[in-house]
Amino acid sequence: MRGAQWKRVPWVFLSCLCSCLLWPTVLGVSLFPYGPRVGDREFVKRTVDFTSPLFKPQIGFPLGSSLRDYLYFTDNGQIIFPESEYQIFSYPNPPARGFTGSDSVALVAPFWDDADFSSGQGTIFYQEYETLYDEHNQLLWQVESWIKKFTYTWSYKARWTLKVTWVNAPAYPARWTFGTNTYQVILSTDGSRSYALFLYQSGGMQWDVTQRPGNPVLMGFSSGDGHFENSPLTSQPMWQKYLPDQFLNSNSGLRGLQVYSLHREERPNYRLRCLQWLKRQPQWPTWGWNQIACPCSWQQGLWDLRFQPISMGWWGLGSKQLCSFSSWRGGVCCSYGPWGELLQGWRVHAPWQFDQELEPQSWCCRWNDQPSFCALYQQRQPRIGCAGYRPPRPAWMFGDPHITTLDGASFTFNGLGDFQLVRAWDGNSSFLLQGRTAQTGSAQATNFIAFAAKYDTSRLSPITVRWLLEPNDTIHVQVNNQTVTFETNREDPEGLEIFNTTGIIMTRNGSLVSATFDGTVTISVTALANILHTSCSLPEEYRNRTEGLLGVWNDNPDDDFRMPNGSTIPSNSTEETLFQYGMTWEINDTRLLGKRDDHLPSNFTPIFLSQLQKKTSDKELVTECNGDKQCIYDSLATQNTGIGLSTKMLFRRHQQMNATLNKYPPSIDGQRVLEAYVGQTKRIQYTSHSAKVTFTLKNNGTDFRLFENGTLLWTPKSLEPFALEILARNVEDNLSSVLQPKTVVCACREESQCLYNQTSWVGNSTLEVAGCKCDRNTFGHYCELSKDLCEESCFRSVQCIPGKGCEACPPNLTGDGRHCSAQETSPLCQNQSCPVNYCYNRGHCSISQALGCRPACTCPPAFTDTRCIVAGNNFTPTVRQELPLRVIQLWLSEEENASATDVNASVAYRLRNLRVRAFLRNRLVAPSESGTALASGGLLRRWKVISEFQYLPWGPVIDFLNTELLDAVLEAFLPQSSWRRWSRSEGPRTNVNFHPISREDVDSLLALNVSTLKNYFICSGYKDYHLVYSPQSGLTCVSPCSEGYCEHGGQCQHWPQGPRCTCVPFSIYTPWGERCEHLGMKLGAFFGILFGALGFLLLLGAVVFVVLHFWCYRGNHYSYPLDSES
C-alpha cells in the first residue's frame, strides 16, 4: 500500500499547487454543525448502493413548477424526489451531458458520483426541521440569513428544512480507491419558495480524479419538469470539478458554497395556510356549534326570517345562500342547489366577511389536493346540516286585529291603546314586543299603527326598533331612536333594500319591513290598506318562557289566554270575554313605543262579529269572503270589502308560511362512503322515508347509473373528475334533498394493492383515488410500471438490455456494468508492467496478482481468448448512420382548456412509460381550429400530436415499435391510466385528462421493417459477422462459429480474416476442407480393416471345410455293411 500512496502524491501535490496558484487565499465555508451532539440521526448501509427512508413534508416541497410529496437521499450524493413512494432507485451514474430540461428524474445533486460505503468507512447524518408555526432555531436562523443575503430574498421564513451531511464518503470501489469526501446539503422551503445550499468541507473533498474513469461528478439540480441548473464547475476542467471546496462563490465571497433557487416561480402553499389556520383554532368546536342548523330546503329557509339571502360572488356560483348570525352562538351560512336542495352549511364568525370566513375552507379543501387536510378542517369546522333544524314558531296579527298565538290559538281583539304582545326570555337574552292600535276610521274596530321591539343580551347593547305607519302604506323605521336609511343591495335580483348594524339586520321590500335580532327573533311588518300587519317568530330557546297577547308557548293552546295575574280563561270563551282578557295586557309605559299623537276615548268598546252578523243588509259585502270569519268581520266592521279581502289574503299567506316551515324534503338513507375497483360494478341501494320519491343524478356520468327506485350501479372505467350527487325529489310538493357520498376508486394493478384510507382528489372534483401499495417488482402511482434493470442507467458507454441488465464494463474497466472502475493494482506487483501491445483489438492489459503478477487482458464482448485475438461471441451492433425514427400521429380530445405545454407534457409522460421505453419526443402538438361546445357549458378541444420513437438494436424494442406500439398507445390513453396526481398549481402538467381514444385516432406515419433496419447497423469487427434478428433479442452480431460453421465436429475460431475451422479426426475418419465438410479415412485403419476381413474370410472357409469333411466321413461309415450283405 505504501507504493500506492506514494503514487498518489503527484496528484495531490498538483491539486494543491493549482489551488494555490489559481485561487486567492479566501476562507472556506464551515459546515453547519452535524452529528449526534446536535440531534442528527445517522443512516448508513454497508452496501454499494442504498437509499434513505422517505421524507414526507406536510406542506410538500416546491421544485420547479410542482409540489413534491416525497424525497430521499442516496449514498451517491443526491436528494431524489420520486413521483411515487415506490419509485426508489439510487442512480449511481450521472448523465454525461449534465442536467437538461428533459431529465425524467427530479433530484438535487450536491455531489453526484458513484460512492461506496460497503468497506465500513464513512457515514451519513441527517436532521429534519419543521417550523410551521414560527418556532425558533439557531441553525435555521443562519440558513434564512444566508438565503436572504445570497438570493436577495428579504422576507424568507423557513417552514421545512432538511440537512444531510455525507461524512468521509469513499468512492467506488472503496476497496482500492483513496481519499474521502465530506460535504453537506441544506434544503429549505417556506412553502412557496425553495432553496438548496451546498457546503463542502475545506480540504475535505479528497477523491482522486485519476481514479474516476466514468462520467465526471455532477452538481446542480433538475426538477423533472424543465427547470434545472448546473453547477458553475460543470464547464471547468475535470480536476476542478472534484474540488468544489476550493470553488469561490462570487456572490458570497466564500469557498465551498453553492446556492440554488429550486422553484420556478413563487406560488401560494395552501397546505401551509391550512395547517397554520388549524393551529390557531381550538381543538374542538366552540360551545354552541351544535345548536346551529340549516333549513332543510331553500323554500323552507325563505320563510324563516332568521336567514337572509346572501350573494357570495364567485364562491357561490351555481348555488344560492342563506345566512343567519347570532352574537352568542355565531353564524351559519347555508348553500342550496337549483332545486332548493341543501348542499352544505358552515359556521361563520362575523357577518358579511365571507371571503375571510371561506378562505380556510378553500385552503384546506377546495384548493388542496390532499383530502386529509379537508378532514382536519372539518374536525374544527364540522359541516352544518339540517338534522337539528327546528323552524321558528310564528305568531301573527293582521287586519282589525286578528291574532294567532304561538301555539296556534286564534282570536279577534279590537282593544284600543298600547299592548304587550309578547315578552320572552332565556339564559342569554330577552325580547319584548309591543303594539299600538288606533280606531279604524269611524268603525267600532281598531288596527295596529305601530310596533316596537327591544332585544337585550349580555353580548350586545340593547337594541330597540320601531315601525310607525305613515300615509300611503309606508313605514317609518327607527333603530335606537334613529331613523333607518336603507341601502339597495345591488347583488339582489329583486332589488332588496338592507340595513345592517351590530346585532340587527333589517330588509325592506316595498311595504314589507323585516328585522332579525341577533339571528334569533324575527319581526316582519307589512303596511296594507293603511293597517300594519305583523308576524313574529321566536326561537326554540324561548319555549315555555313567553307571556302576553301571543300566549304561553308550550304547544298547548288551551292555556294561551293567561292574564298577567296568572289566571287563565278558557280557549272557547266569548268575544266579549276575550276582549276583557286582552285589555289586561294594556300598558301605560310609552318609553318603547313613544308618546301618542292622538287622544284616546276614555271608554271604547268594539263591535263584535255576533253583532255584525245580525245585520242582514250587509250580506253583499261578504260574498267574496267565502266564509272566512276574519274577512267577514273586517268587511262588515269597516264597510269596506277591500280591507276584508286583504285580511283574507294575509291569513292565507301566513298559513302557507307555517305549512312550508313545517314541511321537510325527503330523506336519503344509504351508504355514505363508496369504494370500488376499476372495472368492477358496485351496487348500492338508497331509500327514503317519504312516499312518492324519485331518485336522479344531478350530474350525468358514464360510470354511474341511478334508477328511480334508488338503485345505484357504479362501474368505474376511468379516473375522470366527477362529483356524485344523488337527488331525491318528492313528486307531490317538489321538495328535494341531495346526498353527496364519498367516492373512492382504486386503479391499482391488483385489487389487493388498494389503500382506501390513503386517498387524493381527482382534479377539482369530489372523486378520490385510493393509494396503492406496490410489491417489490412494481412502482408508479398505480403500481402500473414493472421494475426494470434498465431503470437506472448503466456506466458510461455500457448498454442495457431490457430484462437482462447492463452489459459488461468497458474493456479497460472492471465491475458489473452499472458500477465500473479501474482494475486493482496489487502492491506486490508494483514493479510489473504490461508489455506493449500485449492485448489486441482494444483489449485492456493489467497486471494480475492471481496470475503471479503476469499480464491479463480484459477483452471486448466478441472475443473468446485471453489476448483478444480470437472472436466468436455475439455482440450488439453499432449504428452505421443516423437512424430514421418511428413516427405516429395521435388525435386527442380534452375539455380542460389545457395549454399546448400541458398537452405535450401529459402525452410525453404516458408514452415515456410504455412497457418498452423508446419514446423520444413529440415533434408536433397543435390544437384544431375550433372546439365543440358541450351541454355542460365546456369546450371539447381536439389536438393533433405527432410523436417520435427511437429504434434501438437490443431487446424487444424493434418488435414492440413495429407490432405492439399502436395497441400500447391505446392502452396508455385508457381513462384509468390517464390520471396522475399533481398539485393544484399552474405550470406544465402531466395530468391532462383526455377522452378515451380508438384505433382510428392513432395513425402510423413511419415504420421500418427489419430488413430495412439492418442497413443502418454494422457489425464493426471481424469479417463474416452478420446481423441476426429475433423479436426478443433484437438485432445481434452473430459469428458463423455460433451457427455451426464447422461441420463434422470441427472447432471454430473467428480470426480477423474470418472463421477458421480446426478439423478434429473421429473414429476412422479424418474431416478435411475449409469447413471440415469432407471426410477421409485413415490409411492404417484401411489396411487393418482389409487384412482383418481377409483373415476372417480365411477362418470362415477353414471352418466350413472341416464341417463338410466331418459330415461326409460320417455318411460313409454307416453304409458299408449293407454293401457286404449284398
Automatic annotation (TrEMBL):
Residues 830-869, 1038-1077 form the EGF-like domain. The keyword Signal applies. SMART domains: AMOP, EGF, NIDO, VWD. The chain crosses the membrane at residues 1085-1111. Disulfide bonds join C859-C868. It is found in: Membrane. Keywords: Disulfide bond, EGF-like domain, Membrane, Signal, Transmembrane, Transmembrane helix. GO terms for cellular component: membrane. Residues 1-28 form the signal peptide. GO terms for biological process: cell-matrix adhesion. GO terms for molecular function: ErbB-2 class receptor binding. Residues 393-593 form the VWFD domain. The keyword Signal applies. This is Mucin-4. It comes from Neomonachus schauinslandi. The lineage of its organism: Eukaryota, Metazoa, Chordata, Craniata, Vertebrata.
